[in-house]
Amino acid sequence: MAVVIDRELLGDINEPNIEAINYAIQELQDRRNHLDKLSDYYNGKQEIGTHKFTNSNVQASNIMVNHAKYITDMNVGFMTGNPIKYTAEKGKDINDILEAFKNIDIHKHDIELEKDLSVFGYGYELVYLKQTDPVSTRDNNGREKLTPNTEIRIEVVDPRATVVVTDDTIEHEPLFAVFIQEKLALNGQNDGYSVTIYMPNRVVEYRTKSSMNLSSTDRIVYDGENLFGAVPVIEYRNNEERQGDFEQLISLIDAYNLLQTDRISDKEAFVDALLVTFGFELAADDEDLKALKRGLINAPPKEEGADIEWLTKSFDETQVNLLSQSIENDIHKVSYVPNMNDEKFMGNVSGEAMKYKLFGLENLLSIKQRYFFDGLRRRLQLIQTIVNIKGANDDASGCKISLTPNIPFNLSDVVNNIKNADGVIPRKYTYSWLPDVDSPQDVIDEMNEQDAETIRKNQDALRQQDPDRLELEESQDDSSEDNKETQSDNNHSKRTRSI
User: Fold this and answer.
1) pTM of the model
2) N or C: which end of the chain has fewer CB within 10 A?
């Protein structure tokens, strides 16, 4: 989450301000526990794991059903299951940017980034240049020389180790970013921290001795130029509040796990029930105790009031199951993520019915992608700067970003709608209803080619069956064309004479 400060307090934004940096680091440490809790819930380290009964003799089963992971994984799949597509504005070129994305495997990167957004509510990525093998070239005299070479790289960085500082204007322009990495000695003990400051035109890395906070005595291990001309750490938001997809559901998740734990504990208590005798004592040796454990119980004496039975705690399983389903339904209702294992969520429902079942999810994804696109546009600007420095002429301004949610849809309904709209709505618009179609005009061109190929094949087949008839039709067609040309020439001559 970005830290906001007054721009005037920094002075030169390309000179490290120790006081401002330490302020940002302190803000990062203050939110660390909250972020750790969200990460633990996704990884299955939830509150139910520490649950204990008041009676120390009773062992808690501690059943954990990881709804947090289910919600995040489903949202990540829905959001980034299909690659994000970029289309340059008419008359502009972004081919070098797209080539850089291809080399980075940007789709895999976007999946990892969306996971952080879903868990923490916001995420960070670092755009940087990686030094690679130098390129061999020759000068005017034919002598070989090695030219330094770099490649564009993008990596997801942990929000628990990263903070971006922005100004206090309504645009919240990034001023600098801080990335902290713990250093360990060979024995695994803490050996200080690496604190890297990313400024618009400069990158400085400090090495501290023990604390994360910087001091004037900490040494600088790297001081280099930032060729991007802007802070290369980009913050992405999951929503306006920067909340994770399951952050507001933690109480429901805890309640569901506790209920399931109690159900299993009640079952175990039922199996380990006490045997109670009435009106007599049960004196048993070792053999009798073994028999009791196997359920072999001798009949009680035939005395008045004598009896023997198991002492168990009765519970209404129907009511418990109803409460369990109610909590689970609330989890899916509030998260907008449907329960794919629900019997009502069948695969044979119509496309229109499927839309209503996924209506809440589609609304959620539309909000998420609006905030996601803000970061993607900043990414395009940073990559454009570097590819143009390398000699390209890309222009990503006005670039169209499209994201197709990876959710179930009924393709037959889409095709039927396109067929029914043919002749009423231009095909350039109806073909855009098809999923994974960026350019409807390309589909139209392919359909025309397909129709021409079909006509050619039909003519070939007809020629083989009745060649004389086909030649006659072709000659008639040619004669008709000649007559049209002759008539056109005559008309032209008449108009010329009249003039």
Assistant:
1) 0.77
2) C
Query: pLDDT tens digits, residue range 77-114?
Result: 999 998 998 988 888 999 999 999 999 999 999 999 99
- Sign of the torsion formed by the C-alpha atoms of 326, 331, 335 and 336: negative
Query: Distance between CA 111 and CA 88 in Å, rounded?
Result: 23
3-class SS at 457?
Answer: helix
Amino acid identity of residue 373, one-letter, is F
The stretches of 44-105 forming alpha helices (DSSP H) are 67-80, 95-104
Asked whether 470 and 459 are in contact (CB, 8 A), the reply is yes
Residues, the chain, total? 499
Residue by residue, DSSP assigns 109-167 as: HHHHHHHHHHHHSEEEEEEEEEEEEEEEEE-TTS-EEEEEEEEEEEEEE-TTSEEEEE-
Structural contact between residues 172 and 143, judged by C-beta atoms closer than 8 angstroms: no
CA distance linking residue 118 with residue 121, whole number of Å: 6
Categorise residue 43: left if φ over 0, alpha if ψ from -120 to 50, beta otherwise. alpha
Residues 6+ apart with CB under 8 A from 278: 305, 306, 307, 308, 309
Q: What is the mean pLDDT of residues 108-132?
A: 95
Record the tokens describing residue 286, joined without a space. 């070792």
For residue 7, give every residue at least 6 positions away whose Cβ sits within 8 Å of its Cβ, in sequence order, or none.
13, 167, 168, 169, 175
Q: Can you read off the two tokens belonging to residue 316?
A: 């209404």
Q: What is the pLDDT of residues 313-334, one digit of tens each?
A: 666 678 888 899 999 999 999 9
| DSSP 3-state of 221 | strand
For residues 310 and 425, what is the distance between their CA atoms, to the nearest angstrom? 76
- Tell which residue, 157, 146, 50, has the closest CA to residue 109: 157
DSSP secondary structure of 383-432: HHHHHHHTT-----TT-EEE--------HHHHHHHHHHHBTTB-HHHHGG
